[in-house]
Structure formats: structure tokens, C-alpha cells
Amino acid sequence: MGLTGLDIFKQLPKTNTGDCGFPTCLAFAMAMAAGKASLDKCPHVTEEAKETLGAAAAPPIKLVKVGTGDTVVELGDETELFRHDKRFYHPTAIAVAIKDTEDVAAKVANFNELEFDRVGLHYVTDMVALTNASGDAAKFKAAAEAVVAGTKKPFILISEDVAALEAAASAVADSKPLLYAATNDNYEAMTALAQKYSCPLAVKGNGLADLSELVEKITKLGYKDLVLDSGNRETSQVLADLTQIRRSAIRKRFRPFGYPTMAFTTKEDAMEEIVQAGVYLSKYAGIVVLKADKKENLLPLESWRQNLFTDPQKPIQVEPKAVAIGDVTPDSPVYITTNFSLTYYIVEGEVEGSKVPSYIVPVNTDGISVLTAWAAGKLTGESIAKALQINDMESKVNHKTLVLPGYVAVLSGSTEEATGWNIKVGPREASGITKFAKENFAK
Q: Coil, helix or strand for 403?
């Protein structure tokens, strides 16, 4: 268990300078106890207090980094059990499994193509998980070298054979791969290997009780860059383990579980595997290792990850700036929508699909959808008029006709009055834009 807020407060200077970002030392102490502030924010704390408060100052889940450079994957350093309490900070890393018995260079080349652009965002697949399926140390080493030659992304070396893992790690240690895995049978040698090459180490238990004991043994050897695997593979049990580890770390400050976690999928059917991976991604794996390596399979998983690891208090939004779709002319129609990212890009896709060059004006509604913005009083005749003025739409087209979303047809009168433009009520659903455009604007 961590120290209470009052325990921490007793060690602070009690000067209430606000230099830590909190109005009082007591407020800072309470934030530290909740894992939402670190001791280094206080410039006035004594060295003696730093030593006493070391455990309380540490985050409930340790930050562990895999890889180097711009593509390093950061795991852990989370402070919340539920996303709506604040936010989750480090998105689950998605690792694609490759065996050293396969054509590793070709597999890595395919892995590099697993990137997507969707709703104005760029999704990436984060890691390679190289497995020593051959059981041959030399082959595993050569495969590891092929991974380094083929991608700059971080990777995992998977083998419980210490000799094979050392052979591979010795060749690619500068890339700081995650070494998998320390078990009860090899933890001393694995820990020594991780220390030798300064690489993070995965710890594989045989259930949670065994895992906690194993972590304590390894930390007593002086190594703490750890990633935890309970060892279970059945979906419901892995979910229970991941949840219990997270709850123990956040709520109880149980130090043996204060590390990021990882999980492996077992389903053979690609879509079933994606569903299984989605379960682990949601609660609370830091890394999910899966076999799926096709874009059509990974896109839904990465889309879900993008939604989960956003700030729930800050909707994803686009810049409220008029966008020209196609080779616009002064006769081109003008569509009104909101700057909620998902709404905007759906509308953009449909307008583009209509083949009728058009302008889209996303009104600044603080990133909320059409109906929600109307209900909240953010999408109004006045806000639409302001958007037209900011984007100087009167200089871009030779007409004064707007297309309003069908769901807010009720705004027609107030928008005409506020803007002086004529109103066409568009379809209720974006999917109707193509037909609407061809019937009203196609020449």
C-alpha cells in the first residue's frame, strides 16, 4: 500500500508556494497519493523527504520503454482504472508475430505497410514479435538481424531458451528490444541478460500469485524494467488477470503489479483474433501480440484503439476551415457541417464520392456532432453566419445558397435570417449526399 495524503503532507515543506502547480502543499500531497503528481514537481522538498517519499512519488505503473529513436514504444505510466476519470496515456502497442522459420525479410516488409489514414489520422502498427520457432540460436540471431535491417520499429524477442535469446540480443541490443520471457526456471539468467544489454524484460508467471512472487525475486536482483504476462491464454481468464493487475497497481499500490502488461491472442480465425485482441486492448494490456497481418483485419482494431486512447473531455475535431473538394468553381455548392472529426470526414468522403466539386464549411462546435451541437446551442444561424464570414465564402462563390444537414432543417429560417443566404435542406444521412448532389448540382 502507498502512503496516504497526510503521510506525504507531513514530509512536505508546507510553504504553499504553488511552484508545484497546486495551490497548497496539502493539495499536492493528495494528488501524489492518488498517483496524479510526482515529487519532482516540488523544488523545495528536502533530500530526506525525497528518500522517505520515494515509493509514493513513483507512478502506480512504471514507465517502460521498448526500442529507440522516434519509434520508441512507451508502456505503463498510467494513473487511472477508468478512462472517464481522466484519460489513458499510452496506447496499447500492437505487435505482429513473425516466426524465425518464415521469410523474415518479406514478413517485415509486409509489416512496414501496415499503416492507415482514416478520418484525418495516421494509424501505425507498432512492433514485431519475433518468435524462436526453430529452436536454433543461430537462426534466431539471423532473424533478429533481419528485423533490424528491415524496420526501425521496436520489437520483441520471444524465447525461453536463454542461450538463443542471448545470441539474438547480443546482435541487436542497441535497438533495445523487449526480451521475453523470464520464468521460474530461468529468471536469474534472464535478469542477468536484461541487465547486461539494458533491455526491458518480460516476466511470465503461472497465474497471478506465481507472477507476483517471480516479480519480487527479479526486483530483488536489482532490475525493474519489466513487462508482465500472467501466463494464462484463455480469453476470460486473461481479461480477469489484466483487470486484477491494473486494479492492484492503481487502487492498492501493490508494487509487484506496478508494471505494464502484455497478452497473446490464441484464435486462429483472423476476425475472432481481432475481437480477442480488442478485449485485451480495452482492459488493460500494454502490448497485444497477434498473428493477423492484413490491413483489413488490423484497421478495426487500430480504429478502436484510437477512440479509446483519446481524452474523453476533448472530442476529436478538425480545424473549422472551409475545404474545397475537387476542382471547385464559383458555382460550386456549399455544404455546412460541424468540426467533429468523424462527422466531417464522413461528409467529406460522400461529397468527394458525388464527383461534384464542392465546398464544405465545418462550423466550430467544439468538436461535437450535428444533432448534439444543435441541442447544445452550438450549431445555430449565428454560428453558421460566423463560419461563412471567417472563411470569406462570399468571395469564393457567385451564389448565396447553403446546404444544411437534413437533421437540422429546423435551422433553415434562423440561418437565412442570420446569413442572408438561401437554404437547401440536404439529406438526413451523409450516405444520401451523392444522390442529392447529382439531383441538385450535377451539370
A: strand
Half-sphere exposure of residue 293: CA atoms within 13 angstroms, side-chain side: 17
CA angle 104–173–180, rounded 5-degree value: 70
**Domain spanning 323-440: which CATH class is it, in words?**
alpha beta
Q: What is the pLDDT tens value at each position of the chain, 443 positions in all? A: 457 888 888 889 999 999 998 999 999 988 887 767 878 888 888 888 877 776 555 678 999 999 998 999 999 988 888 877 777 889 999 999 999 999 999 999 999 999 988 766 788 999 999 999 999 999 999 999 999 999 999 999 999 999 999 999 999 999 999 999 999 999 999 999 999 999 999 999 999 999 999 999 999 999 999 999 999 999 999 999 999 999 999 988 899 999 999 999 999 999 999 999 999 999 999 999 999 999 999 999 998 998 888 776 677 788 899 999 999 999 999 999 999 988 998 999 999 999 999 999 999 999 899 999 999 999 999 999 999 999 999 999 999 999 999 999 999 999 999 999 999 999 999 999 999 999 999 76
Q: Map out the domains of the chain as residue ranges.
A: 5-57, 64-308, 323-440
- Is domain 5-57 classified as CATH 1.10.15.40? yes
CA dihedral 283, 255, 251, 201 (to 10 degrees): -10
SS3 227: strand
Considering the entire predicted model, what is its pTM?
0.73
Beta strands in 37-109 (DSSP E): 64-66, 73-75, 93-99
SS3 351: helix
Homologous superfamily (CATH) of 64-308 is Dihydropteroate synthase-like (3.20.20.20)
3-state secondary structure of 19: coil
**Is the separation of the CB atoms in 344 and 365 below 8 Å?**
no
What the block records as the C-alpha cell of 192 is: 542477468
Q: How far apart are CA 295 and CA 289, in angstroms?
A: 16
